[in-house]
Amino acid sequence: MPFIAILIDLLTLGGYFLQLNHGGAMTYLLGLIFQVVMTILLLIIMIGYHGKKYAGYRPEGYSYFTIRYAIIVLSFVINGLVLFSYGLNYFGVNDLIFSSF
């Protein structure tokens, strides 16, 4: 599952560069839809993960994620933030994500 999360990250990174180099209203809409689908897929992977989620070392009051589960959670969080930025760009609030390099 962490490998699938990394593959999804690579796909969304490719989609970002496609939109950055060939921008337009339709391209941004398709990119937004693609990002929504990938973020929902990562949410499903994160909820449905059956491996060990917490490390064996647990200090009082804390529990640490395992590296595999942390990859999935971090991938979901980053893609969620990118989705938020795509939404801001598409609705004209802030175009920072596609302004330039």
**What shape does the CA trace take?**
elongated
Spans of at least 5 consecutive residues with low confidence: none
Percent of residues in beta strands: under 5%
Number of E-type strands: 0
Main beta sheet: none
| Element string (H = helix, E = strand) | HHH
Radius of gyration: 16 Å
Rounded mean pLDDT is 91
- The tally of helices reads 3
End-to-end Cα distance = 32 Å
The share of residues in helices is: 55-70%
Class computed from helices, strands and strand pairing: mainly alpha
Set out the fold topology.
Elements (H helix, E strand, L loop, with lengths): L1 H20 L3 H23 L19 H24 L11
Structure description:
The protein is elongated, with a radius of gyration of 16 Å. With 101 residues, the chain is mainly α. Helix 1 (2-21) runs antiparallel to helix 2 and helix 2 (25-47) runs antiparallel to helix 3 (67-90). The model has no long low-confidence stretch (mean pLDDT 91). It starts with a helix and ends in an 11-residue tail after the last helix. Helices cover 66% and strands 0% of the residues. The chain has three helices and no strands. The longest helix is centred in the last third of the chain and has 24 residues, at 67-90. The protein has helices spanning 2-21, 25-47, 67-90.
Structure, briefly:
Helices cover 66% and strands 0% of the residues. By secondary structure, it is mostly helical.
Notable traits:
0% strand, 101 residues
